[in-house]
Amino acid sequence: MREAAPGVTEVARGVFVARGTHVNFILLVEGSDVTLIDAGWHGDADTVERSVAAVGRRIEDVRAILLTHAHLDHVGGAAVLHDRHDIPILTHPAELGHARGEWRESAGPIDVALRAYKPTTVRWATAIVRAGALTHVAVPDAEAFPDSGRPLDLPGRPVPVTCFGHTTGHTAFHLPELGVVATGDALVTGHPLSGKKTPQLLPEFFAHDPEQADAALDGLAALDADIIAPGHGAPLRVELSRAVATARA
Ligand SMILES: [Zn+2]
Questions:
Q1: Residue ranges with strand state E in the chain
Q2: Looking at residues 168-192, what average pLDDT do you find?
Q3: How far is the CA of 68 from the centre of ligand 1 (A)?
Q4: Distance between Cα 71 and ligand 1 center (Å)
Q5: pTM value > 0.90
Q6: What residues does the ion ligand 1 have nearby, CB within 5 Å?
């Protein structure tokens, strides 16, 4: 792993994990083209644009934004970049209605702050509110990618791996040749509310269906991969099967 720019880590050749406001997004660079996986909060859009420049590409080179899921900390920046640059937004068919704003599945930051009142929680809630946590975001023209188990025809050739539960259609993306998995929020390596920096599930109240989210870890454990590019926390080199065992312990 290599620090390519402040807040941008190259975890494998052409795969960059970049930091927004307490959330990550991923850049897959292939030739001159880029796929983004997630794009931070509404207020992180400029950070996403800077990270594209930091890896030597232009925002016009971004072919699509893939969503792991449509929570505001992953879709907010995508909506802004879609409006600014007409970048297509793609998500799993089961997540499409969520992305389009037909329903919502998030624990709001105020709920969270009330449930887990601590100074760190308040600092986190303040930062995310500033980044757009109270701005409702929907992307009415989000589209579905084909759920065929095959690589998507996009830079980096990511393979969707469904891990439903955190949201109805949450999906991770596997890069088999590089041994990388962009796990989204199905498996993270840290969060301001947990204080731990090991593979873990997010606190249950963030999950639409916590039992299903736990079961979905089986699919991640079965992947041939040893690098986690998570939605929250630092990227981590660890066998996925071991990471899942740690998260469940
Ligand atoms: Zn998240």
A1: 2-5, 8-12, 15-19, 24-30, 33-37, 62-66, 89-91, 143-144, 159-162, 171-175, 180-184, 227-230, 236-237
A2: 96
A3: 9
A4: 6
A5: yes
A6: 73, 185, 231
